[in-house]
Amino acid sequence: MDLSKLFENNQDHSRKKNGSNRKMILKKQIFSILYLESSKTIADLCHPVNVSIPTMTRLMHELINEGWIVELGAGESRGGRKPVFYGLNPFIRYILGIEISRKYTRINIFDLHNRPLGETVQLDIELKNAPEMLQGLKKELDLFIKKKKIDKSKILGAGISIPGLLDKKTNINYSFPNLGNLPLDSMFSELFEIPTFVEHDTKAIALGELWFGLAKNRSNVLCLNIGSGIGLGMIMKGELYQGVSGFSGEFGHIQMVPNGELCDCGKIGCLETVASGTALVSKAKKNISEGTNSIIKKLVDGDTEKIKLPLIIQAAHQGDQFAIELIEESGGYLAQGIAILIHLLNPEMIIIGGDLADAENLLADPIQQKLNKYTINRIRQDTVIHISELKGLAGLLGTIPVVMTNIFSQTPNIINLNHKLVHDTRSN
């Protein structure tokens, strides 16, 4: 039997009474438990799957013969025979991660232990250039998969993170109409010839933090994505909060400067216009072209059009006062917005991620200092603020749970998103 059938959506639930279909469901439960908890004995698996030891033994033998499960070795004896531990064969299937941003696209492939197969590839493929971008991405993906010497049929699914107003009811992105008016998951599945699941970029970052980062085993966490724009992913009661249409978290579009600059969203004075990476780059170009002294000018050989956010951060870490002040100013505005979040939501943790997180304490310190001014201390003291340990990797790692939670959800009630995940990519 081909275990890939386990991942097909079962439309007729009455078929669960059928013996072969029940066996597939049981095997899928075993798969999900071993994926989330690494290794188990046959006795360990019997209770959550609700089968007897003889039945579980038969199922495990079949899964071993099919290549899905491997024997990991014996554990310590508790007075009888040593228990044998089993785990997933990490190379039986793979997960394709795709992070699409306004300025670039990153891709990688992960095994079933959530380990990347080599270095992440960054492509100069911009979202604004669709539909040319779509064909270019397909070509690059096919080449990438070929270089990895992986049969496309062994890819369990592709997870895509994408910015913009992504409607979870229709799966249409209203910020980028050039992508078309078809559901993105269906469009990308057909384009790549791989089951594909799409999530908003900042929500994918929140999932990455929940599964692999500082939010793991936490219940109420806010994840900031500060890059070309500013977004917010919210973990509430251990689950990703979407909002009624999936539009929650547009933190960058709260008004910060009345009568300020026009934002891309069409409104005036949004937080993004003064605190995002795009805003920092715009200010750097303007000031340096007008004569402000900075080593940034040397880094771009005097061509201010080459100024990008990583160069500003690099200059700040080298002690450039102008770059430091730019980041501090951004931190001050962010602190005003974060103060609102703390007063409204009372989170246990706020994680600062995205490209600007590479500034580390140069960004975190001014935020912390300004929060003392903007927040009620009794409320503020219950919230810890951290720079993401995953930083720019959180979004790509977040495509893994985007795929796996969709896979698991095809059979209801077998998985809890906030279940402890032992495979931690930070240790690899």
Q: What is the topology?
A:
Blueprint: H1 19-37, E1 39-40, H2 42-49, H3 53-65, E2 69-74, E3 84-88, E4 94-100, E5 105-110, E6 121-123, H4 132-147, E7 155-162, E8 166-167, E9 172-173, H5 184-192, E10 196-200, H6 201-212, E11 221-226, E12 230-236, E13 239-240, H7 272-275, H8 277-289, H9 295-299, H10 309-317, H11 321-345, E14 349-353, H12 361-374, H13 377-380, E15 384-387, H14 394-397, H15 399-409
Parallel strand pairs: 4-7, 7-10, 11-14, 14-15
Antiparallel strand pairs: 1-3, 2-3, 4-5, 5-6, 8-9, 11-12, 12-13
Provide a descriptive summary of the structure in words.
There is one protein chain. It contains 15 helices and 15 strands. It is an alpha/beta fold. Helix 2 packs across helix 3 (53-65) and helix 11 (321-345) packs across helix 12. Residues 1-17 and 411-428 have low confidence and may be disordered. It is globular and about 75 Å long. Strand 11 (221-226) and strand 12 (230-236) form a beta hairpin. It is 39% helix and 16% strand. A five-stranded mixed sheet has the order 6-5-4-7-10, with helices on both faces. A five-stranded mixed sheet has the order 13-12-11-14-15, with helices on both faces. Strands 1-3-2 form a three-stranded antiparallel sheet. It starts with 18 loop residues before the first helix and ends in a 19-residue tail after the last helix. The chain folds into three domains: 3-88, Arc Repressor Mutant, subunit A, CATH 1.10.10; 94-207 and 394-411, Nucleotidyltransferase, domain 5, CATH 3.30.420.40; 216-389, 2-Layer Sandwich (Nucleotidyltransferase, domain 5), CATH 3.30.420. The chain has helices at residues 19-37, 42-49, 53-65, 132-147, 184-192, 201-212, 272-275, 277-289, 295-299, 309-317, 321-345, 361-374, 377-380, 394-397, 399-409; strands spanning 39-40, 69-74, 84-88, 94-100, 105-110, 121-123, 155-162, 166-167, 172-173, 196-200, 221-226, 230-236, 239-240, 349-353, 384-387.
